[in-house]
Amino acid sequence: MNPIGVTSVLADLRGIRSKLVGMAESSAPSGATTPGGTAATSPDAGSFASLLHQSLADVESSQQQASQLSTEFEQGNPNASLPQVMIAVEKANLTFDGAVQVRNKVVDAYNTVMGMQV
After folding, report:
1. CA–CA separation, 70 vs 9, rounded Å?
2. Between 63 and which of 28, 35, 90, 92 could a Cys-Cys bridge form, CB atoms 3.0 to 4.6 Å apart?
3. Residue 37: DSSP 8-state
4. What is the CA radius of gyration of the chain?
5. Which helix (H) or strand (E) holds 54?
6. Are 46 and 27 in contact (CB under 8 A)?
7. How far apart are CA 55 and CA 59, in angstroms?
8. SS3 (DSSP) at 52
């Protein structure tokens, strides 16, 4: 079994964080500030539909990776260790939970807009 290092896990988490910050910067309106405090410069860097599509593709990819790694571990593959499987499954769960929360916020916003008096 190959033990997974803490440094590789931290590097993965930092990569995910920088990707999310990059998505937030690209989807923010011109002149707006992002959660990192930087101003977004290009308003047309990505449409909401493409951002949503990419996010759902990332969720699906992480779930497939976790499933594949889990299957390899169950089959006794020496390259798939239990810590790697657990981390991959937890990443897949977190990305799915995040997608569900975004969906719920979009539905709430839609219901709020539809309930407004004109």
Report:
1. 18
2. 92
3. S
4. 18
5. helix 48-74
6. yes
7. 6
8. helix
What does the angle CA 9 – CA 14 – CA 17 come to, to the nearest 5 degrees?
A: 130
SS (H, E, C) 62-117: HHHHHHHHHHHHHCCCCCCCHHHHHHHHHHHHHHHHHHHHHHHHHHHHHHHHHCCC
Tokens representing 52? 């949503």
Residue with token string 């709430």:
108
| Dihedral pair phi/psi, residue 109, rounded to 5° | -65, -40
The Cα 5–Cα 52 span in angstroms is: 32
**The pTM is what?**
0.58
**Cα 9 versus chain centre, distance:** 15
* Mean pLDDT value across residues 88-110: 93
